[in-house]
Amino acid sequence: MMWLVLLLIIFAILYIYMKRSLSYWENKNVVFEKPSIIFGNFINAALRKEQLGYTLKRLYDQMDDTLPYFGVYVFHSPYLVVKSRDMIKQVLIKNFSSFINRTEYSNVDVDPFSSNVLFSLKNDIWKTTRTKLSPIFTSGKMKLMLPLMKEVTNEMDDILNEMEGKEIDVRDLSKRYSVDIISSCAFGINAGSLKDANSEMKTMVTRMLDQRGFTRSFAVFAWFFCPILVDIFRIPFIEKESSQYLAEVFKQSMKKRKENNTKRNDLIDMLNELKEEEAQNDQFEFDDIFMSAQAIAFFNAGTEGASILMTLSLYEMALNPDIQKELRKEIRQNIDTDGSLSYENLFGMEYLDLVVKETLRKYPFVQFLRRFAEKDVLIEETGLLVEKGTPVFVPLLAIHYDPKYYPNPEKFDPDRFKGDKIKDLQYVYLPFGDGPRKCIGDRFALMSAKIGLAMFLKNFEVTPGEQTEIPLKFNKAAFFLTPEKGVVFLKINKLIN
């Protein structure tokens, strides 16, 4: 009898705690969607029935269009969702110092690499690292990497000639292309993934953050929203064996570079330069783990981001032949006599830029941004006090599909960004984020995807095939944008003129 009474008391305490924790937004007079007692507003995401970005979009669409923000609960944690253009500006730029960090959690014992990447670093450590790494991604440095990318596009052209007239998985081809691009530009090696679809490098990169399996998607969810599970189950953010493999590849590449005294103007050279310039009074040193972490992050984000961008651009070109035809015309007008593209011509192609922008608008790789209030912040325009520790969502996917900013949002329309129209979309076009914490590698991702698309489409046409999925479905359990079947089939035909 005593045990029954004790059990009832425990349940009563838990119930009171849950009810109290789920009254946070009501007590602050913030509009919110009624949560479930256990999962809050994210029961579908927790049960792997809906991507978290789509959950935010659904809630965003239900709210009054005039609301600048609303509240949600992830389990029992209250999150503020910023909805208006001005509130987005407040969080990402105007009050950036109060919302400087993307995450509150890291665990160097469980995953030393993920805990040392720029994405995870906080406050002054992040500022120092960002300052040191920024010179790597200047336009001048990117220009030096272009010849390395051209070597890979030449190999891709050979592969396309072999596949001519066939229906191929452009998702796999884009992944192999991106692996070879990053391998060359980051590690200074030829991974051979275009020639060998089952190369060791490609296999390891696929394993590193494969969102189609339960383990990796659960790991990402736990690191972001339930870190106690990371502490309990010791789950690394990225797959352990593959991250250690890439760290060893990076280490050996660094060693050989020093021994041979060679220079390729790639990531290894640039990180070496930073290490040599390291000041004695720095808050940390560029040790092997820290440098490997940056290389792994560069590899992971660059491979996935650029390959999915290239894949979905090709998919939309197949569904929109008139757009594809106009893009090919521009590409051919800018090709050099030797059949390649200069850096100036690549970034001077307006229509290619519009196509890429629209692909990123319709298919953002990351579907929301997250920040944390580092102190109490009063938003004067609304009178809202955002208390210290409050997590904030910027619902990127929802904003990219808001008809107020993007009429007929389901339509693929590159002309949305033509001319000065992009100025009217400031703070509501956010494929790489915005403000001081905007993605540091956006220029590299755009360059590798753009030259890949240009070299693909200059001589080859993509059309839907028998295996092409229309509309394309995405994995509901994946944290990042991932095709549900893991494949995107299109037919490719070589053009005579």
What secondary-structure arrangement, pairings included, does this model have?
Layout: H1 2-21, H2 24-27, H3 43-46, H4 52-62, E1 69-74, E2 77-82, H5 85-94, H6 123-133, H7 139-163, E3 167-169, H8 170-187, H9 200-208, H10 214-225, H11 227-233, H12 240-260, H13 267-276, H14 288-319, H15 321-334, H16 343-348, H17 350-362, E4 369-372, E5 377-379, E6 384-386, E7 391-394, H18 396-400, H19 442-457, E8 460-463, E9 489-494
Parallel strand pairs: 2-7
Antiparallel strand pairs: 1-2, 3-9, 4-7, 5-6, 8-9
Helix pairs in contact: 7-8, 7-19, 8-14, 9-12, 10-11, 12-14, 14-15, 14-17, 14-19, 15-17
Task: Walk me through this protein's architecture.
- The chain is 50% helix and 8% strand.
- The protein has helices at 2-21, 24-27, 43-46, 52-62, 85-94, 123-133, 139-163, 170-187, 200-208, 214-225, 227-233, 240-260, 267-276, 288-319, 321-334, 343-348, 350-362, 396-400, 442-457, and strands at residues 69-74, 77-82, 167-169, 369-372, 377-379, 384-386, 391-394, 460-463, 489-494.
- α7 (139-163) packs antiparallel against α8 (170-187), α8 packs antiparallel against α14 (288-319) and α14 (288-319) packs across α15 (321-334).
- The protein is globular, with a radius of gyration of 24 Å.
- GO terms for molecular function: heme binding; iron ion binding; monooxygenase activity; oxidoreductase activity, acting on paired donors, with incorporation or reduction of molecular oxygen.
- One of its GO terms (cellular component) is endoplasmic reticulum membrane.
